[in-house]
From TrEMBL:
Pathway recorded for this protein: Amino-acid biosynthesis; L-methionine biosynthesis via de novo pathway; L-homoserine from L-aspartate: step 1/3; Amino-acid biosynthesis; L-lysine biosynthesis via DAP pathway; (S)-tetrahydrodipicolinate from L-aspartate: step 1/4; Amino-acid biosynthesis; L-threonine biosynthesis; L-threonine from L-aspartate: step 1/5
Domain of life: Bacteria
Matches recorded under InterPro entries: AceGlu_kinase-like_sf, AKii-LysC-BS, Asp/Glu/Uridylate_kinase, Asp_kinase, Aspartate_kinase_CS
Family named by the database record: Belongs to the aspartokinase family.
Name of the featured protein: Aspartokinase
One Gene Ontology cellular component annotation held by this UniProt entry: cytosol
Aspartate/glutamate/uridylate kinase domain mapped to chain residues: 3-230
Length: 254
């Protein structure tokens, strides 16, 4: 049995049908004997829509209020996903970033994680439940909601995986792993079965959007394996590990 953290991005939970499909995948992982914690992004373009609404009422919204608003997107998706899992016969418990123990600095809009104390998530796992955590957000020392900036849910997932002592952090997206080029643009791009943290960091610095830079840096620092996969298929994806680590040693649930 493995402890697996799965992260689902906005395209994977874009609507209620997508959320039901993701719930089935999570339950499949759970029923194979694994403990599962999930980090979820806001549905589709919700975050961009919230920013647009904010600017319709205030062309220069206060950073604190904007963060309060933007955390709403992940709260919606985490709750709906927990409900979808419940409707399919499993127990799930959703948590905001603050409830999951994500403590950040005071920088609104681009906060850095200072600590993760996921006691409530651990309790849920011990009770046989699936823990669903809102990505992209935390709480500062004042008790105010903060957001982690673009790609923040990837960083949330890796940080949660490290704090839980997970065996692997699976990042689910809309492509089948890390490729030599963007397969949506270059049809001949080849999937890379395994790759080092340093190589992915180089790709991210050059503009690749598969993984957020801070997410990979966090994973490298704590030696947390990342498995990049598509939520729309069961193809093997790409394992991201340190130099010299055998990718075949990383748990693969399929």
């Amino acid at each position: 049995m493995a402890l697996i953290v799965q992260k689902y991005g906005g395209s994977s939970v874009a609507d209620t049908d997508s959320i039901k499909r993701v719930a089935r995948r999570i339950i499949e992982t759970k029923r194979k004997g694994n403990d599962v914690a999930v980090v979820v992004s806001a549905m589709g373009d919700t975050t961009d829509e919230l920013i647009d609404q904010a600017k319709e009422v205030d062309s220069q919204p206060p950073a604190r209020e904007l963060d309060m608003l933007m955390t709403a997107g992940e709260r919606i998706s985490m709750s709906l996903l927990a409900m979808a899992i419940h409707s399919q016969g499993e127990h799930a418990h959703s948590f905001t970033g603050s409830q999951a123990g994500f403590v950040t600095d005071a920088r609104y809009g681009a906060a850095h994680i200072r600590a993760v104390k996921p006691d409530r998530v651990i309790n849920a796992l011990h009770q046989g439940e699936i823990g669903i955590v809102a990505g992209f957000q935390g709480v500062n020392s004042l008790g105010d909601a903060t957001t982690l900036g673009r790609g923040g849910s990837d960083t949330s997932a890796v940080a949660l995986a490290v704090a839980l002592g997970a065996d692997v952090c699976e990042i689910y997206t809309d492509v089948d792993g890390v490729f030599t080029a963007d397969p949506r643009i270059v049809p001949t791009a080849q999937r890379i079965p395994s790759i080092s943290y340093d190589a992915v960091l180089e790709m991210a610095a050059s503009g690749s959007k598969v993984l957020a830079l801070r997410c990979v840096e966090y994973a490298r620092r704590f030696k947390m394996p990342i498995h990049v996969r598509s939520s729309f298929s069961h193809l093997p994806g790409t394992i991201v590990v340190g130099d010299g680590v055998d990718a075949n040693s990383i748990p693969n649930i399929d």
